[in-house]
Design brief:
This protein is of the alpha/beta class. The protein contains ten helices and twelve strands. The strands form three sheets. It has an eight-stranded parallel beta barrel with strand order 1-2-3-4-5-8-9-12, surrounded by five helices. Strands 6-7 form a two-stranded antiparallel ribbon. Strands 10-11 form a two-stranded antiparallel sheet.
Length: 260
Amino acid sequence: MKLHQVALQLYTLRDFTKTPSDFAVTARKIRAAGYEAVQISGVGPIEDRELVSICRGEGLRICATHESGKVIVEETQKIIDRLGRLGATYTAYPHPHVPLTTVEEVLALAADLDKAGKALRKAGLVLTYHNHAIELRKFDGKTMLDLFFEHTNKQNLQATIDTYWIQAGGGDPAEWCRKLKRRLPMIHMKDFGVSKDNKTGVMMEVGAGNLNWQAIIPAAEKSGCEWFIVEQDICPGDPFDSIRASYQYIKDHLAERIGR
């Protein structure tokens, strides 16, 4: 992993990206923290051309987006058009927008994702599936996540493995990275730990929790990961402090020092 591959998921700073002026200030702080790219998610009603202009002006690349799951499967062309405006190749289906209580429902969504992903692929774009813990629920011995990837073409649906949520669901983040070889363009990096008052499953800055990053990062690299995206849905204090701490740990302990 090289430092220019480290991006920030803007959902982390969603309270500071509601207006163009706020977004500009936030983008400047993100770049000052070291990040060179962002994933668009959780921002306010800001026109895409303005997002591009602000990011470009602050030296940030837009590497990917999160989009509405419903729009992805029902109005795919809107996603294709938006990614074109933003200059991004990747998007992610962020969370199930339909009930997934039976294997039939899971396979129906897989079919919809395959269809949407095919349309995106023909436009030179990539659809990924971003997991939470729910996708680790099993049907007849196979997790929902396994079923999604088994019942879609690897060219039509790829993955954004979220390390925290894989751990929360009882999985092994490094193993999931290995399983998705040549199907893993992005991962979300957030740590999993225990609070001072013994609360488990706390979202933490990268390196502050108990995930084995020394295993996760090489596994992701071997599977072809292009973007290593820091995300922290909940921060203990100022989220800008959290994104700086995560970047510093990555720089000091995980990223290559030479050949950025």
